[in-house]
Specification:
387 residues, 13 helices, alpha+beta, 19% strand, 37% helix, single chain
Length: 387
């Protein structure tokens, strides 16, 4: 059996230390650091998510009592609670945003199967609220007696990996954050009806960006053309319409598809899209992919520590959320590289028990239930002494 470091250390090797150091220098995160580095903070926060630690005490004590020394993780000793709390409160969270983007680019380079045959970039937009206590987080007041932060996400529709993330207060508008994003021509955006805005849709039509969204129950439109639909299918109606009332200044000038899809036991689903060439079945399948981002949010909240926080400041909360996204992206990377059909929940559950075990990570991913290989040098047998 070849000598390996702990499985936690092998996961950390997926993040190049030179790129991490460049991100630290770029944001000046260690300008006033005294002994405790950003890498040590990063290791501690990753252990918070992968080891399911609920507090600063569990993080620091869990690292301190780990098997063997911590030098294989790149840190000399486990941090104190006050040291880690001060770093989370004052050090720049932009460092971990940069690390997340670097890891995201590397993960996207993996060869993943594509569900759709078209080559257009497919992006899914949505946001999710993270409930907070108003008394503990007064800066994140959402409504009376309740606080919240909001995570805005863009998911790649082909690979189902995160493409962009932004953290705001709970009151921030989803539509206002989506308008700030810029897309290359030909991109297909999938979104819920919370992003319905005729003026924004017209701007996307002008720059060559396509959208697929769900319509609201109340909206004005003018039918320009009725297209034929296959008999006996789920597509009930395929129309080319112009959105908006003639008296509205936000009325769209570009034509839009209005596709009505039947659902067993429910009312028909009406989908809007400015892509006039795809078949209505393809448009419906594209909108079905929007559920992947809901699954991503559910996985993030169930497997990472984003419901309880180890700091109450805005900086500490953003650091914990960004490190949670990095940890989830690392697990996605392991899931992609493994030939075994891992479910993410099973991978998190088993890996949490094996973090500080000295075993080959990639061999364990292929054969997790096999015992490790015996050492090359057998132990000496003590022979009985003659009487």
């Amino acid at each position: 059996m070849r000598q390996v470091c702990s499985m936690f250390s092998q996961m950390l090797q997926l993040i190049p230390r030179d790129q991490f150091a460049e991100a630290v220098r770029q944001h000046g995160a260690e300008r006033h650091a005294r002994g405790f580095t950003c890498w040590g903070q990063f290791v501690a926060m990753l252990f918070c998510h992968l080891g399911q630690a609920h507090s600063l005490r569990e993080i620091c004590s869990g690292l301190a009592c780990s098997e063997g020394k911590l030098r294989h993780l790149g840190i000399p000793v486990a941090p104190n609670r006050s040291t880690l709390a001060y770093a989370n409160e004052h050090r720049s969270w932009q460092v971990y945003e940069t690390v997340f983007m670097q890891l995201q680019e590397r993960t996207q380079q993996q060869h993943l199967p594509r569900k759709f045959r078209f080559k257009n970039p497919l992006k899914i937009i949505d946001s999710s609220l993270i409930d907070l206590c108003e008394q503990m987080f007064p800066w994140a007041q959402y409504c009376r007696g309740k606080g919240a932060a909001k995570l805005h996400m863009v998911l790649d529709g082909h690979t189902h990996l995160p493409h962009y993330a932004h953290i705001t207060e709970g009151r921030a508008s989803d539509l206002a954050e989506a308008r700030k994003l810029r897309w290359q021509p030909g991109t297909i955006l999938v979104m819920d009806r919370a992003y319905l805005d005729y003026e924004w849709f017209q701007n996307m039509c002008d720059v060559g960006v396509f959208f697929v969204t769900r319509s609201r129950s109340y909206f004005h439109y003018e039918v320009l053309q009725d297209r034929a639909v296959p008999a006996g299918g789920v597509i009930v109606r395929d129309q080319v319409v112009r959105l908006g009332s003639p008296t509205w200044h936000t009325r769209m000038h570009s034509p839009v598809r209005r596709i009505e899809v039947t659902r067993p036991g429910q009312e028909n689903l009406v989908i809007l899209s400015n892509h006039l060439n795809f078949s209505p079945k393809t448009i419906a399948d594209i909108y079905r992919e929007r559920w992947k981002i809901e699954t991503f949010f559910r996985t993030l909240k169930q497997t990472m520590r984003v419901k309880t926080f180890v700091g109450t400041t805005a900086n500490a909360l953003k650091i914990q959320i960004w490190t949670a996204l990095i940890a989830l992206l690392l697990l996605k990377f392991l899931q992609i590289r493994s030939r075994l059909s891992w479910s993410l929940s099973m991978l998190v559950a088993l890996l949490r028990q094996q973090l500080f075990v000295y075993r080959d990570l990639w061999l364990w991913l292929e054969q997790p239930w096999q015992p490790p290989e015996p050492p090359l040098t057998p132990q000496l047998l003590l022979l009985p002494q003659p009487i």
